[in-house]
Amino acid sequence: MAGPVPLTPRRGVKGVPDVAPRGRKGDGDMQALKRVEAGVMGAWLGIGMLAAGLRMAEGVKHQPDSMSQMMGNACAWICFKTLQSVLDQRFPPEIAAERLLAQLGQLRDRKHLLWGLQGDRCVMIANFDLLRDVGSDPLQPWASERGSSDRWAFIDRSMLLLEEVAYLDLMARAIELAAHPRYESQEAFEQLLREIEGMSELDMLATVSIPAVDGAHRAEERLVAQCDLAEIAIRLKHYQGKTGSYPQQLQDIVPEFLPALPVDRFSGDPYVYRREGDGFVIYSVGVNGQDDGGDPDRKDGDIVWRSSR
Q1: Alpha-carbon span 185 to 177, nearest angstrom
Q2: What is the DSSP letter of 30?
């Protein structure tokens, strides 16, 4: 998807103040987000706080491990929930909205997930190297129980090598799949998961790691979909501000308000949009790949952005 386009061309105007507190985030930041959602803060500062929260989420996702990716996603979801409430109350100043759109563009960058998965792989390679380098000590309990230390140490190290080869092969394939949208990689991920079901217990790391990659990829796709929905919602609000009503079809905001419509990461089709009363609903079909009519409560169901006005 193309990068964010300014709502209105401006020159020589800086964005909203950088309100992100430095250092580790704490309860104070969560309270600030609650005040934003409650409407206590002005629209300018409120959107600035949300942009700062998304920037914090992106900063966490810069860490090269999948756990940090999941933590960053969780932080971003808190911000998205609050943003829906804020946009339902008022449309923010255009400069603040531009700042938020720029942050959404950075957050949806797929490189974060790939960094995290490659970091996990590097850690495991280092662990395998460590087991080989420290001698027979980590394997001594097995060897002593079987009576022949040298013979069993050799066999155990052979098993270790086979497990490493299996892990690296499957992990390389999984990372390659994670570089693609879910609608392109879903079947291949399912095939990979079926493949590890028949593997030996000795391939424990491979059988544990691949489902984790699958879960991380699904979580990342949900995040990207939420970023897309947030941007479309902001563009729809701008359209309403200019025309007095929301469009009857999503294509009406292209290209004046949005260069091109993004596609749903889980279906490959445009996101579902319809008017609801004075507002609108827009949603992704979600992980299950089925249109549940905008119901987010079903298992792996729709990812929904709803505005009442």
Answers
A1: 6
A2: H
Instruction: List beta partners, residue 272.
Output: 283
Q: What is the pTM of this model?
A: 0.80
**H helical segments located in the chain:** 27-37, 43-61, 66-89, 94-107, 111-133, 140-146, 149-178, 182-197, 204-243
Could you state, in order of their start, the residue ranges of all structural domains in the chain? 1-109, 113-217
Average pLDDT along the chain: 81
Residue 160 vs residue 57, higher pLDDT: 57
The answer to whether 181 and 220 are in contact (CB under 8 A) is no
Q: For 272-295, what is the HEC assignment?
A: EEEEECCEEEEEECCCCCCCCCCC
In the structure encoding, which two tokens stand for residue 308, read together?
A: 């009442």
Query: How far is residue 60's CA from residue 66's CA, in Å, rounded to a whole number?
Result: 11
- Cα separations (Å) of 48 from 55, 72, 78, 267? 10, 18, 15, 32
108-162: per-residue pLDDT in tens?
A: 998 999 999 999 999 999 988 887 776 544 445 444 444 444 544 544 677 788 8
Alpha carbon distance 107, 229 (integer Å): 13
Distance CA 116, CA 186 (A): 20
- The DSSP element (H or E) to which 306 belongs, if any, is strand 303-307
Kindly report, residue by residue over 268-304, the tens digit of the pLDDT.
999 999 999 999 999 999 999 999 999 888 888 899 9
d(C-alpha 270, C-alpha 279), whole Å: 19
